[in-house]
Amino acid sequence: MPAIATAPTVRVLIVDDSAFMRRAIERLLNNAPGITVVGTAADGVEGAKRALELRPDVITMDVEMPRMDGVSAVGEIMRTTPVPIVMLSTLTVAGAETTIRALEAGAVDCVAKPSGLSHELANVGERLAETVIRASHAKVRRRLAVMPLHPPMRPGGPAREGVAAQHLIVIGSSTGGPPALTQVVPHLPGDLNAGVLVVQHMPAGFTAALAKRLDSMCPLHVVEATDGQLITPGRVLVAPGDYHMVVGRDHAVHLTQTASMHGVRPAIDVTLDSAVEVFGRAMTVAILTGMGRDGAEGAARVEKAGGQIIVQDEATSVVYGMPRVAKEQTQHALEVPIDRVATAVVRAYQSGSHLPGSHLR
Hints:
5-stranded parallel sheet; Rossmann fold; 7-stranded parallel sheet; disordered N terminus; disordered C terminus; alpha/beta
């Protein structure tokens, strides 16, 4: 009788300076099917050393630790022993901002760190296990130190508050998305006469820090979206974690907590399905790195309405799932490396911006 093939077990290294938290996370992950904890480390220095010794499939990494913090440890590991890293962070402003820097340094995902309360540990266990499994599919590469960024030059001229955008750009991303977004959003021009929506799969509490970080890098203004906020030219609205971002007939975004789609909230398809009813062919969509199929059906609807679709290529995607399915579901999606996505988006917008609703091709 032939042997039944089984999925390989994901080997995990836990890095956390709390002995209690190391034991708690180890129990949670060892109880999850398909995951085995192969080691633990008490700080970033030990974590980098154990990563080299154990060669785990995934590392869970605390943010605040003595000797070497999580951001520095991610940078060291990505320079020496590249491996998918999931950040565990407290839901404080400082913790969220540090987590965003760790994602820029090469970590692929993040989870809100539970307190020591037993019911919180149980609640986070399934979410952490799902994130670890998803991270195990990520394609990571050795990374060099990131050069410091110069503050953006904001465009002059009158503010465009209260003026509804006539063209919409939607950028969707998931695993590996934050660093991909830093290669796209900051390269959109400050005089862009279009509204921009960003839907990044990310837990509640982290998207405000993501928006703040992008804003510090961009000539455009970037903010976390609020309910009823008008979509205006030259402003980027980031969907808050745990909320779908719906585009209304009033050209404003509305936040809902209706059921998750594709297992996520916010979902790119929710935003695209509503946006195409309002903007029609005056839309440009970019689907970046991520697992699954979120954004593919919405992209197909946008293309059918006359909009243009851009997808990140496989070579530069941390996970080539969402871009691949979006390309398969559409007829004329343009596939480009991440460093050419912004240029492709701008060209698509410029080709169709002379008339609201004009065809983009």
